[in-house]
Amino acid sequence: MTRILDARQLTPVTKLFRLEAPLIAASARPGQFVMLRVREGGERIPITIADYDRAAGTITIVVQEAGATTRRVCALESGDSLLDVAGPLGSEIDLPPVGHICGVGGGFGSAALLCFMRERSALGDKTTTILGARTRELIILADELARVSGAVEICTDDGSAGFRGLVTGRLARLIAGEGSGRPDAVVAIGPMAMMRAVAETTRPHGIRTLVSMDPLMVDGTGMCGGCRVTVGGQARFACVDGPCFDAHEVDFDTAMRRSKAYVREEKIASDRAGCASGRSGGHASQAH
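Structure (tokenized):
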């Protein structure tokens, strides 16, 4: 059992949890994830580690309600416990100091940038974080990211905060020299369509770009093969070879098709759990 020390609502469907997990915190690195289970007989879901505190023995995760299991997680409060939390799993984001690095977060994927941007700033990189969401109310952890980034750029589809438009629009302007200037490398974490769009924005400029893939995953250790993605024409497993890969080598079309393989089953599970909104997605993927 893993005890929840703090639980904080970030948006109507997104919640932050600080967990008592000293063994995981001791070796966690940016980009890694945990596999968690709420109850006996329940599914395991991969959730990216948003932050860790080695001295306090805690890790932080952010979960967005997407279906049956994530709804159960988000119903928990401080003092409750999760049945299983295993990790850290996956590989850390492998990127040497580059000069100027830009982290691009879409929706609740922004949480996964928190420890990464802190580490990059500590290494001496110039850091810029671009956060995107449909509207102001869905932007998360902007203040926390501002404390660990040299600059934070907010983008909203409706213009209710910051730049009106998509994160790729603001990224293109940085590449052209606006604001904090052209990045030497980009790390994008968020919805698959957003990460693909970021890859196509940086590709013509030859800017090294990494994305954190979130395919369907069962065990997180490479045994099930469910999380395979095609990278550079080769099959790779997101759980052990990633989850971060070269964005310009990822076959996003195949990855997006595979992510929809169990939409019907996920909706059935969601409906059984009483998700009145009808959002599909019993499998949460990473809490990017």
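Residues 192-202 form the longest helix (11 residues). DSSP finds nine helices and 16 strands in the chain.
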